[in-house]
Amino acid sequence: MFDDEKREELNYIDxxxxxxxxxTRVESFESMVSNSSLAFKNPSLFNDPYDCYPNLINFESVxxxxxxxxxxxxxxxxxxxxxxxxxxxxxxxxxxxxxxIGFSNELSKIAISCFSEExxxxxxxxxxxxxxxGVCIGFNLRKLYLAIKxxxxxxxxxxxxxxxxxxxxxxxxxxxxxxxxxxxSDCWSYEKEIRIVLTNLTLDSTKQIYIPITKxxxxxxxxxxxxxxxxxxxxxxxxxxxxxxxKIYKMxxxxxxxxxxxx
Length: 263
Known about the structure:
- With 263 residues, the protein is an alpha/beta fold.
- 36% of the residues lie in helices and 24% in strands.
- The chain folds into two domains: 2-55 and 111-262, no CATH class; 61-107, no CATH class.
- The strands form five sheets. It has a five-stranded mixed sheet with strand order 1-5-12-13-14, sandwiched between helices.
- α2 (26-35) packs parallel to α9.
């Protein structure tokens, strides 16, 4: 079931999302281009406290052989005292130890970069581009994927729901972790979010990693409607000098409706 849903998601992205849009501030755009890198963050840094919320995963169906599996898989992270404790503890205590140590370590190796299907979303400009003073960057999905494919990226279409759905890790670990980073409250549905997820990473104390990309992955740059003139000049200069293949647009307020348009 989960694999079928993933295939549907990938088919949707392939057919409908040739460009991924990232809303950001001028400083972040400047750093991204000058360093030819894209930031990926551990979900613990996200602004929504229910985004990648640990309680979306439960650990109820404990298999008989789990105790030894846990010890062998996470032995490098367990002290001899903890291993001895696991061997002599109840199932509930073993699960608690796994969730707090082994599983927590597994989630700490995940980093995500977030995008939208739209470049003209009023709320996205307000929340992520410094109140319309920043930029929205259009990435060619195929070129971006090729640039980072050595990291085995997973493309994810975020699913929005008004129900709190938990998935049992022991019944299907892949589905449990997949749902953990793809389900969000439907109050965020306006974002129309697409994610690129990387796993098995080594993150530093900032819980971030910067992945090299080619500048050719950026196909378009949208300047915010309230961007200061000096910053607009800086953005255009960066594009002309370092992103010759990217198209530059200016976002404007439509005069007769609550919509953004380009010029």
